[in-house]
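W.,

You were right to be curious about this one. When I first looked at the sequence I had no strong expectations either way, so I just let the prediction run and decided to look at it fresh. Below is the sequence, 312 residues in total, followed by the output.
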Amino acid sequence: MSMEFSHKPVLLREAIEALNIKPDGVFIDSTAGGGGHSSEILRRLTSGRLIMVDRDPQAIEALRQRFGGVPNADIVHDNYHHIEHFLSSLHIGGADGILVDCGVSSHQLAVPERGFSYQDHHDAPAPLDMRMSMAGMSAAELVNTWTFQELRRILFEYGEEKFAPSIARNIVKAREEKPIETTLELVEIVKSSMPASAKRDGHPARRTFQAIRIAVNGELDGLDKAVCDMFGALNPGGRLVMITFHSLEDRIVKKRFAAFCSACVCPKSFPICVCGKTAEGRQPMKAIVPGEEELKENPRSRSARLRVIEKL
């Protein structure tokens, strides 16, 4: 397949502004995808350096084709959760800005073989895959082997799906006949598990696919630790910019940012502070959501939320 790795960067202008780019600084695009955010960062650097990170081998291939010869750009095939490891292997002491776009790329959704999309691919059935790294457990393995209880739990927790029990029950029932192998088969099971009224509010399988994708890619496992590690990797004055796409991710980021910005935690009744805790960061702006123009151009951005924290 062609390596045209297209990705419409969400909140592009806002993310670049939030990074507060210094021409001679070190910046990390930790979910580089097709390089949309990266190319805008590079345009603003003179003697600075950009590290582009992605765990998707197809994204890495596309980044190498696009930026392979750029002297101040490094391309790293890894998960941003391992930031301490790859920064030390590149002999980088700290970063002046780190960008994380937690979403699935347009490319991953558009290529049927990747199995991320619940949209109908008429030409050929799409395999149920959803692996961002193209390695490890696939969505098909998950739906065919996890217990009813496990399926119900992830649909509730990760998809906030109120029909989780009936969807999980019908997945188990369907796989007793034959393994569930394609995205369309899963969509049909989900549809059959809901009353007609529930199908009018967006695509009926959206929440189920979100839940399974989060579980397959471990998107919430270790997110809090990753945020801590990335904040720890910042130079003083450096900024961490995070774009999330669902309330679960956003909640983790919001809570952790608030903790970095909080100072004394002594009870109000204490006459003086004894905890000695001072704020480590500040939030230079409130959370940002896409404007009407972006929503028109890219409906997928509707749930995006950008938060930024600056290290003191």
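Here's what jumped out at me. The chain has a mean pLDDT of 94. And, maybe more interesting for your project: The CA atoms of residues 19 and 97 lie 6 Å apart.

Coffee later to discuss?

I.
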